[in-house]
Amino acid sequence: MDPERLTSTTRAGPLLQLQQASKHYRRGGSAVQALQDFELTLQRGEVIGLLGPNGSGKTTLVKILTGLCGADQGELRWRTGPAQAAGQPGPHLREIGVLLEGRGAAYERLTTLENARYFCELREQRFSLDRCRQMADLLGLADLDTPIRQLSTGNKLRAALIGALIHRPALVLLDEPTLGLDLEGVERLHALVHQGAAEGQTFLIGSHDLHFIERLCPRIVCIHRGRKRFDGAREAFVHQDYRYRLVVRSEQPCPPPPEWLGPRDWQAAPGEAGGWSLPLRDPAEAARLMAEWASWLGRCSALQLRAIELREHYLQHLGLTVGEEAEHA
Amino acid sequence: MNTRTPWIRHGLNEARRSLALARRYWVEAVLGLGFITSLFGGLVFAVLKASGQSLDSGQADGLIIGFALWMFASGLTHGSAKEIVEETQQRTLEQLQLAPLSLGQLLTVRLLLESAVGLILLVLTLGVITGLSGGRVALSLPALGLAVLGAPAMAGLGFALAGLSLLVKRGELLMVAAYPLVIGLVSLPALPLSGWSALPYALAAAAARAAAGGQTFPVEVWAWVALNSAVFLAAGLAIFRACLRQARHLGVLGHL
């Protein structure tokens, strides 16, 4: 977007407001509710992580925001403009950059540079070779003059990212942007998002890579079965009463937890058939308990003390167990 | 400050993209053209051989002009649908949706560029035919004019095909099915005016063939060709818009 336009039109108020958006599809004769009464407000410069299992409605949400899929109901407001039916094309789309379902969208027979120039002009923005090279440097893509079909999978994605962001969109929607990227690529994408956000771009990033989301996104939106389950600060999302889990497998019955642990009890260990787990707050608590139970723990057939993963916490937000998550996948 | 209108800007952008592709894959393009021409040459030779005629007899002139017209019309018919199929396969259709220009407008820009190239090829082909036929078939302006005046009808057919390609998984099958349809439309005996003349491009092609042979027509023929073009272009665009709306409603835009 033109810096001038940015200055004159966008300082105050939310960048985008989606209200009461619903969408259903018909699959095999039955209705599938992909999105239901979904509300989302995006502020300028925010980086939002969009989490949800497969089929939860993430891609439908992105498609509605980009006008690729019409909503059954709901309104979308861009900046201070009038409300319009959600999922319909409009002039705001030129200010959006999108990468869908982790796939690089680019003309394979053209070079990265030719693609970038084409997509920039397509959005009626003046192409800047300097910006293109700067983005390529940031993403670690050295060769801009080779047809994309000859690039590796990761580099194809980098080239597509350049094509999607070259016109300085105000809102960037990245759906599974880390698919096919190596560790260095993920780090560079991280840097690109940080730089974009510092320049005022808003990022909505859907991914199954929880650690990528946790590191990058100060705000997290969780979606499951088309409904929003969580929308708030990362700190609130990752806040855990218990950070560790003691997992045992024993032929003898587990001893009752000591009184100083409070009202806690053994639970079937998630993903561990026949195992039992006890949540623990911190290393001090774990060390004290293990010292008390040293004799019994020594007779267990299996023993683990592990940190509770973000994934488990995320499943808890969605009200899912590990098994249910696998079913969704 | 940039003073170019969006249409010119998009026209230049599309031309730059097409040129980059043509420059990098010119061998493929030339081989493709050579293949179609050879195929047609073989067909003409077979027809002449079977009927015991020679090229000088003029019996195959209509067939040869029909080939040139078919090439032009086929490009118009398949242009938009080919774009939709290729953009879908390359996963770029969604990106095009984010352009300020609507998908229909963008396809129009591309089709105009392709039509310009198609027209140059038509003129060259007719020039070669004039040479081969020893002047029996003339590179006449009325013939070219009728071919161009009728072109929007085929563009309309192309837009309808492009719209349907948005909704079906195998759009290329629609394109294959359209090849014999275009051959039929170009070769129909739509002159003098009859029921055949109401079909898209049929009258324009028949009149252009006759004009190349030196025949002249009343002004009504030109008027009917123009009307035919306007009606089928409008119908094609309406079908395209309806299909695009339906694809957006179903959420299948850009689905492979």
Account of the 3D structure:
- The complex is a heterodimer of chains A (329) and B (256).
- Chain A has helices at residues 3-9, 58-65, 112-122, 129-139, 153-165, 183-198, 210-216, 234-238, 283-292, 294-298, 310-318, 322-328; strands spanning 16-27, 30-42, 47-51, 73-78, 84-85, 96-99, 171-175, 202-206, 219-224, 227-233, 244-249, 267-268, 276-280, 302-307.
- With 329 residues, chain A is α/β, with parallel strands linked by helices.
- Helix content of chain A is 33%, strand content 26%.
- Residues 1-10 of chain A have low confidence and may be disordered.
- Chain A has a six-stranded mixed beta sheet, with helices on both faces. In chain A, strands 2-1-4-5 form a four-stranded antiparallel beta sheet, covered by helices on one side.
- The longest helix of chain B has 32 residues, at 219-250.
- The A-B interface holds A 23, 25, 34, 60, 63, 66-70, 87-89, 91, 93-94, 96-98, 100, 103-110, 114, 117-119, 121-124, 126, 147, 163-164 and B 2, 6, 9-10, 12-13, 16-17, 20-21, 24-25, 90-92, 94-102, 245, 248-251, 253-254.
